[in-house]
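Quick check before the chapter quiz. The format below is the same one you will see on the exam, so make sure you can read both the input and the output lines.
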Amino acid sequence: MTNPEVKAPQKERMRIYHKEYYQRPEVKKHKREYMKEYMQRPKVKTYYEEYNQRSEVKKRIRDYYRDYDQRPEVKKRRNESRREHNIILRSQFLEMYGGICMCCGEKDIRFLTLDHVNGDGADDRRERSRAAILREALSDLNTEKYQILCYNCNMGKAINDGVCPHHNNSSLTKPSIRHTHSKNMRQRRNLRTRLFEVYGSVCACCGENEERFLTLDHKLNDGNHARKQSGAFKIMRKAISEADPRKYQVLCFNCNCARSQHNGICPHHDVK
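Here is the expected output.
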């Protein structure tokens, strides 16, 4: 009769051995190749095709992926992958379209972005992702639809009836399709005026003083979280009522957008 006290350590040793064995690269490779061949067998393929069509199996798979997609580590991994992919697409777009702002001549790629020449960028972004827009722009050089602008010129153009403030009296850009005299636009202009009265009308980083290039910045780098909680009007009203220069400041769009993409540091103040 086997002594239980001797049998227990043997089981533990075997467990540790098998765990180490299946971690060996050659074993993993052999297992992958075997499973790949096994899943291609006609009987196995037929079985799994029928199995996956069962209602209870479909429900179990659906429930699993619904839970899986909500895991923080999965969300983080997907966001990082999406961000890296967008950076690659953006670099390719900037190289293909000249790498310089078509309005003011800004050459620092950290201040550059894609612009819809016809002023329909907001509607386009509501219908599809930024990556999809970049992929279309890269599929064929189309300077009648897309161009490179710095964030200042891009946002200044959106605020200023489709014409960048640098060229306010020219016809370099087509008129915006937005209704700039709507109630929302009047509210926005009034709030921006009050905001500049509280926090000043000069960029706290580079000194830009054209008001149509200026925006509110969250100094604590929590602007993205704040925008998820409430809309732009509520954020501006809160900043005006609090009048707290420790939390808020005025930056131009170049400094604000570039800062948000470079760990809270504007490229003007990069430490090399």
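If your answer matched, good. Confidence is low (pLDDT under 50) at residues 170-180.
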